[in-house]
Amino acid sequence: MTSTPDLVVSYVRGHVGFLTLNRTAKRNAVNLDMARAIADVMTDFESDANVLVIVISANGPAFCAGQDLQALANGEPEAFIVGQGWAGLTARTAATPVIAAIEGPAFGGGFEIALACDMVVASMGASFALPEVRKMSSSLRHVSLRGLYEGLR
């Protein structure tokens, strides 16, 4: 399959496509290049009839710290891929089931990746947070979470 050093690692074993976030120096924070790499791997997996399920995991102590804020501060656009969503994942509509295998923190966009998956398997050491909701820095994300909250009530 595809491998993009320092960003994601991917391979197929049997009927399972594995995508591993691999930007450990940045706690797997997603920048635009990483989002493109994720989107490319997901497209490869979804077009492979042999892949019946996709598992997303991460190397390092964190699953994903969300958006790479340093990249944003340096003028890079948000890690959003048109038609595929944030990190190339959050707006995908493919039929292939996606499982998030989470160890460590999944904060901000990392939690959004988990929410975009069909199933989440989390270790006892996993933690989840949406700090932008508390800070109200992203009204779009706040509105979508408000809708989720209202739907659950």
UniProtKB/TrEMBL annotation:
Pfam families tied to this protein: ECH_1
Xref: SUPFAM superfamilies: ClpP/crotonase (SSF52096)
InterPro entries named in the record: ClpP/crotonase-like_dom_sf, Enoyl-CoA_hyd/isom_CS, Enoyl-CoA_hydra/iso
Entry's transmembrane regions: none
Family: Belongs to the enoyl-CoA hydratase/isomerase family.
Protein name listed in UniProt: Enoyl-CoA hydratase/carnithine racemase
Species the sequence originates in: Nocardioides massiliensis
